Model the fold of this input.
Amino acid sequence: MINFKITHGLVLVAAIILSACSSSSGSEENNPKTIVFEESQPSSLIQQADDSPNTGALEYLRIKHHKVECEGYQVSHCYLVQKEGSDEWIYFYDHIDGFNYQWGVTYEILVHVQEIDLGLADTSNQQYSLLDVITETVNASSDAFNYTSHKPQERITEIAPNEFSLLGNKAFTCTDLSCGALRSAIEQNQSVLLSFQHNNNSAAPLVLNAVLCSDATESFSASCL
Done:
C-alpha cells in the first residue's frame, strides 16, 4: 500500500476548491470539488491547483527509478507507477506536462488529470500536468534492476565501443564480457533480460551488469520471465 507523505510542512488538512464559470450567463457559478490530504500542502501547490483547469481530478503517483520498454502506437519507454491505494507497479504510457524525470530517482508527485478528446485513434484521452514534486529519492548506484527488451536488434544500438543506447534515449556501458553476450543475443535476434545499475550521476550512462537470459521471442517469456 502506498503511503504518500507530503513533506512541505504547512497545515494538516488542505482543501482545494475548483470552480467552474458559466460562459452563457456571464455570472460565476460555483461547482466545488474538495480534496482532503493527509498532511500539508505548500501555498504554491494550492495556488497551482486554483489556477488549474476547472475540470478533472488530482492524483498521486509514485514513479519508479527506471523506465521500461513498452508498446503502444509505437515502441517507447514508459514509466512504472503506483497509484494511491495500490502497491502494484503498472505501465504508464502518458506524458506528464512539466515533469522532468531522471533515471535513478524515485518520485512521488501530485498531478492534475483532465479528459481530452483529440479525435485521433490510438491516442490517450487523458492529459496529465505536474502540480508538485512531493518527494525525490535517489536510488543507490549499487541497487540492480532488470530490464527486458523484446527486439534488441531494433531497439538497442551500439553507439561507441562498449557503449549502447536503449531506444536511442538512454545510454549504458558494459564490460567486454557483458557486451559480448549482448552482441551475441542481438545477432541471433533473441529477446533479452538485462541487469543494470545506475551511475552515481543520474545523467551518466547506466552500467550493464549481465545478460541474465536470452531466447527466441516466441519462447522468451516462458524461458526468462
